[in-house]
Amino acid sequence: MPTRIASRLKTYSILLMCTFLLMSTSPWSEQKPMAADLVAPVEESVSAPEEVVSEPSPSERLQVVEQRKPTPSRSAQQQPQQMPQEKSKPQAANPPAQPETEQHQDTASAEARLQDLNIYVLNAISTYAGGRYPYLLDNNYATYNGVTSNIYYKGRLLLKAHPSGNRASHCVGITFEVFVKAMRARNKAAGLDQDDFNGMSFQAMTDFMLRWYVAGPKDTHNLAVAIEKYGLGQRITNLSSAKAGDFIDFSRTNGTGHAAVLIAWIKRGGEIIGLRYWSSQESTGGISYAEEYFHPHGKVRRDRVFIGRVGPIANYR
After folding, report:
1. Average pLDDT, whole number, for the chain?
2. Domain coordinates of the chain in residue numbers?
3. N or C: which end of the chain has fewer CB within 10 A?
């Protein structure tokens, strides 16, 4: 009996195993995919750390940058603090400088407008020092007008220099030339158009020039009359009131006359007996300083002296 039971159990066991094999549903065959699923994450977890090692973490990356970046020197660390100071210096210095410059220009212009022309006249005559300017009195007015160089007013030719270029001049020509130079210098200092002579047009300037040149009776055509007529200044009738830089026209007892820039009076015992002047004359061979005396000490007539002074721009009429 036992032998039969054992034989049957063996047969059932063999049948059971064949059944499992045919169905391919044994416990071991189902566990294989599960084992494979567990291995794959392990492989990925191994490869991931390799990538992390190749690229530093944020903290490690900051340490690397700090190690590679050269440590700034003490002077370099201080420079950013100095830069705002350097920029602020010009800003602090410039604002006061500009108003000071403008104020200086305004002050200079105002002073020029309040000055007589005399100082500018004396400055103008000093520019001829050391030059050669011969004297020449020529009646050919179409080609020569007694000036060393051509004179223009408002862009138009007013007076002509000698065509030879010899820089010759005569008394009324050179004094008028100095007058123009002085007027332009003062206008420039005053911030005005250099050819604005109290608003004179070219036609008015032509008439002014002809009176200066005594192109008519002496009482109505002389430099003092011209200055007064066009509102530039006044005639000085008291000799003691005249000063250096005034323009003077005088006649002599021999019937001749002269125009010049007054430099000083010559006195004896407090009395004015003569004058020192600057002009162009035959006696000196051209532009130079000279001296003459009133009658009876010389030939200058006291009753035929015309002194003109160009006053401040502010006093123009």
Report:
1. 80
2. 116-315
3. N
